[in-house]
Give the backbone structure.
Amino acid sequence: MKNKKQILEDVIHGVFLILGLTTVGCVLLITVYLIIAGIPAILEIGLLDFLLGDTWQSTSQTPSFGILPFILTSIYGTGGAILLGVPVGFLTAVYLAKMAPSKMKAAVSSAVSLLAGIPSVVYGLVGMLVLVPGIRKLFGIPDGSSLLAAIIVLAIMILPSIINVSITALEAVPKEYEDASYALGATPIETYFKVSVPAAKSGIAAAVVLGVGRAIGEAMAVMMVSGNAPNMPSLFQSVRFLTTAVASEMSYASGLQREALFSIAFVLFLFIMLLNAALNFFLKRSKEGQEK
């Protein structure tokens, strides 16, 4: 009997090992492919001209392949979405996890889950029909397709990730922590924000990381509301993100233009990897400091 159980455990362990190695292998294959496909264009165009050039004219007689506007737009757009979405998502998670009545929590949680299941193209369509005309009328500008519209759409799209993961982290905090806080005379609000939230800090940070990944990697919805013009970033001007630059031209690109698009994908991949590595480093450092 023990031998059978041991064999079964070994088989299950082997299956999990294979699945884990497959995941790592897929990441390595994507990395190697992007390096092979992206480096030649960077070498031909020039690293500084490619990264710091402010003009993208890939189809002109004398093409220019500067992606600085795309990089800055992606940074500003993601940063704006985080500034708008993280506070709203965090406070909503605290309310649902700690303060909301059971019926209210069930209703809002269902709505958040539904929000997570909506395809990105639907967000873009609603943004085109409602948000873009609203921005045009509100600010009196010729076209509402702008960086501001993209930021608002991205902020809404990252809410489900932040709310759901933060709720899970907050509900995992041992009840004894809160009971001890109450025993010391703390109010419920003080307990939630000075005891529960710090105890769930790593989970909340993971929620923010997921939100950042969603914001950086989004293409379709952003393309539909941002105007998709290769301009330097401005709040009320049409812009183009790194993701939309690849998606908008890949279908008809060829030659150096196609290689340059793979180079953009490589830059985006490196950007996301470095951002995740930096966030994980600071989280690990903060956790080690807390343990000491």
Notes: The longest helix spans residues 2-45. The mean pLDDT is 87. The radius of gyration is 23 Å. The beta strands are 56-57, 64-65.
